[in-house]
């Protein structure tokens, strides 16, 4: 396997060298055909939501169709690996977020990509938090209720979320910090988790706040806490984890567009220009707020530092929680 990997890297290096030599011509004529954005999760979640916001606005700006390709599996690892192996020619981009760019580096000892080496930030315009939700008739009214029960009844409570997803990490790390033991039930997407939560087949779900919001407002689920640093304006009565005094914990996931390393710089700069227009668009900012997100106003350098800092923080937390695997 290692020998095959070395051969692949040598071949890839040669191919990327040829692409680099041809970069000026490629960039001058780009784009000439359809562009693909890979979302490493099923339709309906945060990855898919942001990918479609970007695609709908990039297509008319670039004059070509921009499609979203959902690639699921192993949390968010499979889709991210698929993107990392694509040609860096400016026709494949990735939705990068805390779960696939950062959490995977903590969950898996070996990956077929390096988050910092293989991807380049194009633009990160929004951040979302997570909301711990339960069925409306759940006995749990607070985070203390959940943790106390889990400590008294180890592994009897179960929660949804695929390995490596933000939903899974939030619950797994919080459980470790508090000393509670819960059982993780893996899923390939948020919609399937919602179905089982509403049917009472699972007990808890630390859902992305944007997808939890309509369920909460429809009375179909009940919120317990949010993972944000501050209370959410649309759910002002729901406390943060830190406010409860149960744990010194927060988790907020940024979402953005990433290019493959080796993509011609003029293409990256053009995409950064278009992404900045999207980030500054009042309609888009209003959409993020309505969806439960927080619009970000950061330079590329600040975004790159945020990614690098989060890699250090979350890899440590995930390893300490005993969640790392081969």
Structural description of this entry:
The chain is of the alpha/beta class and 326 residues long. The protein folds into 2 domains: 2-128 and 253-320, D-Maltodextrin-Binding Protein, domain 2 (3-Layer(aba) Sandwich); 129-244, D-Maltodextrin-Binding Protein, domain 2. The protein has helices at residues 2-21, 23-29, 46-62, 77-84, 98-107, 115-118, 143-152, 166-178, 190-198, 209-217, 241-244, 265-280, 282-291, 300-320, and strands at 35-39, 66-70, 92-97, 119-134, 158-160, 183-185, 204-208, 222-226, 252-260, 294-295. Strands 1, 2, 3, 4, 5, 6, 7, 8, 9 and 10 form a 10-stranded mixed sheet that branches. Helix 5 (98-107) packs parallel to helix 14 (300-320). The radius of gyration is 20 Å and the shape is globular. It starts with a helix and ends in a 6-residue tail after the last helix.
- Give unreliable regions as ranges: 1-9
Name of the CATH first level of the largest domain: Alpha Beta
Query: Can you name the CATH architecture of the largest domain?
Result: 3-Layer(aba) Sandwich
Shape: globular
Give a count of the beta strands, DSSP E runs of length 2 or more: 10
Please render the helix and strand layout as text.
Layout: H1 2-21, H2 23-29, E1 35-39, H3 46-62, E2 66-70, H4 77-84, E3 92-97, H5 98-107, H6 115-118, E4 119-134, H7 143-152, E5 158-160, H8 166-178, E6 183-185, H9 190-198, E7 204-208, H10 209-217, E8 222-226, H11 241-244, E9 252-260, H12 265-280, H13 282-291, E10 294-295, H14 300-320
Parallel strand pairs: 1-2, 1-3, 5-6, 5-7
Antiparallel strand pairs: 3-9, 4-7, 4-8, 4-9, 4-10
Helix pairs in contact: 5-14
